[in-house]
Design brief:
The protein has one domain (about 5-190): Class I glutamine amidotransferase (GATase) domain (Rossmann fold), CATH 3.40.50. The chain is about 20% helix and about 30% strand. The protein has 5 helices and 13 strands. The strands form 3 sheets. Strands 2-1-3-4-13-12-11 form a 7-stranded mixed β-sheet. The chain has a 4-stranded mixed β-sheet with strand order 6-5-7-10. It has a two-stranded antiparallel ribbon with strand order 8-9. Strand 12 (about 160-165) and strand 13 (about 170) form a beta hairpin. The longest helix is centred in the first third of the chain and has 10 residues, at about 15-20. It is globular and about 45 Å long. The two termini are about 15 Å apart.
C-alpha cells in the first residue's frame, strides 16, 4: 500500500486523511523531515499560512519540501497550503511581506473572498471531472497565474480557484470538507499514483 503524507502541523489534517484512507492509501502525518522519504505525494492543508510556515521552519520541513517540489514530487496545497506553494503573496489591496515555498508561478491574494463570516459554497466546473464539484470557500485566496506554465482547472467569476503547474496543485477551496473524493482522486491519478479503475 502506498503512503501519502499530510502536513500535520495545523489545519484540516484529519479531513484529508479520511479521504485518502477511503481511496485505500496509507496516511502518514508529517511533522518532522525524517518521514518525508516514506511518502509518494504530499497534501498541505488549510489553516493559517504564516503559522504553518513558522512551524515548518521550526521543525526543519521548509527546505526539504521545497526541494521535493522542485524535483517533481506531487504536492497539493488547499487554501493556506496553496498560499504556501505560491511564489507571490498579497492581501486585498496591498502587497505584503510573507515568505512561502516559492514553488508555483502563482500570485495568491489572501482572504480575497472575505473573512470567516463571508464563507460560501459554490458548485464548480473542474477540468477532468464530468459533474460539478462543491467548493467550500473559507477565507479563501484568489490564485493568479504568473506564467504560461500554469494550467487553470477551475474558475469562478473573479478568477482562478484551482491551478496545476506540473507536479503542483493549488486549490482556493477545501475539497477535504466534503464527502466527495473526486478531486483527491484526480490529483492522484494525474500523479500516476492511482489508476482510473481503482
Amino acid at each position: 500500500m502506498q503512503s501519502i503524507g499530510v502536513l500535520a502541523l495545523q489545519g484540516g489534517v484529519a479531513e484529508h486523511a479520511t479521504i485518502l484512507r477511503k481511496l485505500n492509501f496509507n496516511v502518514i502525518e508529517i511533522r518532522t523531515p525524517d518521514v518525508l522519504n516514506s511518502i509518494s505525494a504530499l497534501f498541505l492543508p488549510g489553516g493559517e499560512s504564516t503559522t504553518l510556515l513558522f512551524l515548518m521552519n521550526r521543525w526543519g520541513l521548509t527546505e526539504p519540501i521545497q526541494r521535493m517540489g522542485e524535483n517533481g514530487f506531487p504536492i497539493f496545497g488547499t487554501c493556506a497550503g496553496a498560499v504556501l506553494l505560491s511564489s507571490s503573496i498579497s492581501e486585498m489591496g496591498h502587497e505584503i511581506k510573507q515568505e512561502s515555498l516559492h514553488l508555483a508561478d502563482v500570485k495568491a491574494i489572501r482572504n480575497y473572498f472575505g473573512r470567516q463570516t463571508r464563507s460560501f459554497i459554490e458548485d464548480l466546473s473542474i477540468q477532468g471531472l464530468e459533474n460539478t464539484f462543491r467548493g467550500v470557500f473559507i477565507r479563501a485566496p484568489l490564485l493568479q497565474p504568473l506564467s504560461e506554465r500554469v494550467d487553470v482547472l477551475s474558475s469562478v467569476d473573479d478568477g482562478p480557484v484551482l491551478i496545476r503547474q506540473d507536479n503542483l496543485w493549488l486549490s482556493s477551496f477545501h475539497p477535504e470538507l466534503t464527502s466527495d473524493d473526486r478531486l483527491h482522486r484526480l490529483f492522484l491519478e494525474r500523479s500516476g499514483l492511482l489508476s482510473r479503475e481503482e
